[in-house]
UniProtKB/TrEMBL annotation:
Associated pathway: Amino-acid degradation; L-arginine degradation via ADI pathway; carbamoyl phosphate from L-arginine: step 1/2
Protein's name in the database: Arginine deiminase
Keyword terms, alphabetized: Arginine metabolism, Cytoplasm, Hydrolase
Localization: Cytoplasm
Annotated gene: arcA_1
Species this chain originates from: Nocardioides aquaticus
Length: 408
């Protein structure tokens, strides 16, 4: 355990030192053909194989001297504290579906649990047929397979439930009902685990929707935020206000993306692989635009004024904000069908370990070949099971410490 609060990240590509992952577990066993759509999975993963794939991902990171933290380990350590337990139980049981009888029963069950058992209940959830009869109206009338506490299969995608901008951690505000509870857990860990020393914050789950998969730290001071199925226009504005007020950035680029499952986050179509290079889904490379938002000072009443420029091509607006001649787009040169297939399988969702070194799914052979031709070292991982939740190496990782972005 380090004594210092994490230093966070000021870019997408500074050498990765510490990352937060979630090893998929019992929560994936909850997926059935009847609930997988609602729980945002496109299939029913083979859990043991998903774990093997994830372990190999974690090992590939450790092999590059990255410290891997696991969300559930941090959570279990946090839940050793009685106040943290009380908060966790209170928030998990705060929904209006339970009724007082069931809530009282579950409060007792969770209250008696060890920290590790409590982590299990909070992540894998509790189904109605797992409580024994005699607990009143709610359990009698709800379907046997209804969840009293929802499982969180998308915890795997740690990118979305928190992200760091320099030394501040953002607890996000997740848009989809199936993911809302995830931030109860990240909130708890960042607030109460000693490792984080109550790290300074921006954002929060009660604010406008912003998900970490939409947020790209293009360079120190320049943040791109996708606006689409998840992050709302108001979420992008809220993020801009906060990073300007805190002196974390001078420009926020709001980037509209199609409100579709295939492009649910900006990082499904574009990720950075070098200080001045992105890999981008070819079918949007020419059409992606950005609205540059900058700090325009304060009004008389003290509120922050935002200057919003008109839409421009994304790569042009980004290069200007970053103060570089060009933000290069690695042209994967793929035909539209191959491009669409590999985008669906998260070919563009790479995790940079350092400039010109990126983790990618091995199955996207064409995209990876083009990355290598462009001088990027590709660390390949398999993801046939992990990918059924529609997320790649970037989605499955939340960088907690990166070295400052190298110049040039
Ligand atoms: N940053 C990302 N692209 N995350 C992918 C999240 C996938 C997840 N199943 C969802 O639909 O929310």
């Amino acid at each position: 355990m380090t004594a210092h609060a994490p230093t966070g990240a000021d870019s997408e590509v500074g050498t990765l030192r510490t990352v937060l992952l979630h090893r998929p577990g019992a929560e994936l066993q909850r997926l059935t053909p009847g609930n997988n759509d609602r729980l945002l999975f496109d299939g029913i993963p083979w859990v043991a194989r998903a774990q093997e794939e994830h372990d190999a991902f974690a090992q590939a990171l450790r092999d590059r001297d990255v410290e891997v933290l696991y969300l559930t380990e941090l959570l279990t350590e946090t839940l050793a504290d009685p106040d943290a337990r009380a908060t966790a139980i209170g928030t998990a049981l705060s929904g209006l579906d339970l009724g007082d009888t069931m809530r009282g029963y579950l409060a007792g069950k969770l209250g008696d649990a060890t920290p590790a058992e409590l982590t299990h209940y909070l992540t894998a959830g509790i189904r109605n047929d797992e409580v024994r009869g005699g607990f009143g109206l709610v359990t009698s009338l709800l379907p046997h397979d209804a969840f009293l506490i929802d499982p969180l299969p998308n915890l795997l995608f740690t990118r979305d439930s928190s992200f760091w901008v320099r030394d501040r951690v953002a607890i996000t505000s997740l848009a989809m009902p199936a993911r809302k509870r995830e931030t109860q857990l990240t909130e708890l860990v960042y607030s109460l685990h000693p490792r984080f020393d109550a790290a300074p914050r921006i954002h929060g789950h009660q604010l406008e929707h912003v998900e970490g998969g939409d947020v790209l730290l293009l360079s120190p001071g320049v943040i791109a935020v996708g606006v689409g199925e998840r992050t709302t226009p108001a979420g992008a504005e809220r993020l801009a206000r906060q990073v300007f007020e805190a002196g974390l950035a001078h420009t926020v680029l709001a980037v509209p993306i199609a409100q579709e499952r295939a492009t649910m986050h900006l990082d499904t179509v574009c990720t950075m692989v070098d200080v001045d290079k992105v890999v981008m889904y070819p079918n949007v490379a020419d059409s992606l635009t950005a609205y540059a938002v900058t700090d325009a000072g304060h009004a008389d009443d003290g509120s922050l004024l935002l200057a919003v420029a008109g839409a421009e091509p994304f790569l042009v607006a980004a290069a200007r904000a970053m103060g570089i001649d060009r933000l290069h787009h690695i042209d994967t040169g793929l035909d539209p069908v191959t491009a669409e297939r590999e985008q669906w399988d998260d070919g563009n969702n790479t995790l940079a370990l350092a400039p010109r070194v990126a983790v990618a799914y091995e199955r996207n052979t064409e995209t990876n070949a083009r990355l290598e031709e462009a001088g990027i070292e590709v660390v390949r991982i398999s993801g046939s099971e992990l990918g059924s939740g529609r997320g790649g190496p970037r989605c499955m990782s939340c960088p907690i410490e990166r070295d400052p972005m190298p110049v040039g």
